[in-house]
């Protein structure tokens, strides 16, 4: 399996190859950093950058212009051990079946089968994908009553994300 990161002139192509849990890096980039003995992907810095997604692997897609969303997505990536958490600004949205409008409105989950969940359903799907106690929490959140509560909470957080810790004016949703 490999994740191919294609970037503009500032960076080079990197192919991260996973082989039985061991990683090898071919090329160089400033888009990876070592942290706690692991390599972490950092969002690209060039507007010309894009990430080619492996269709057989699920991905959480978030708003990389919003610092609150970025912090929340990265925390989710660490806690849930999600492999692919990417800002929509650097993805080929058409190839994923997403639109810019969808991604501006809410976080997106692109499942391995290509199905898409949005907003609180994306959060629920990522929890269920994580397994263990997270799967149980996702299953509970998907129950009638709980899902509606999650939807209301998601909309409130999304609407006021610019006022939450780490939020900035760039986090403000249109019309909020």
Structure explained in plain terms:
It is a single chain. The strands form three sheets. This protein has a four-stranded antiparallel β-sheet with strand order 3-2-1-6, with no helix packed on it. The chain has helices spanning 67-80, 93-96, 100-105, 120-130, 132-141, 146-159; strands at 2-6, 14-19, 22-26, 32-35, 38-41, 50-52, 59-62, 85-87, 108-110, 116-118. Residues 1-35 and 43-49 have low confidence and may be disordered. The chain is 34% helix and 23% strand. It is of the alpha+beta class and 176 residues long.
Strand content: 15-25%
How many strands? 10
Largest sheet: 4 strands, antiparallel
Structural class: alpha+beta
Give the overall form.
Answer: globular
Give the helices and strands as they follow along the chain.
EEEEEEEHEHHEEHHH
Low-confidence runs (pLDDT<50, min 5 residues)? 1-35, 43-49
Assembly state of the chains shown: single chain
Mean pLDDT: 75
Tally of individual helices: 6
- Any idea what the radius of gyration is? 16 Å
Task: State the share of residues found in helices, binned by percent.
Answer: 25-40%
Q: What is the CA-CA span between the terminal residues? A: 41 Å
Read across the widest sheet, the strand sequence of neighbours is 3-2-1-6
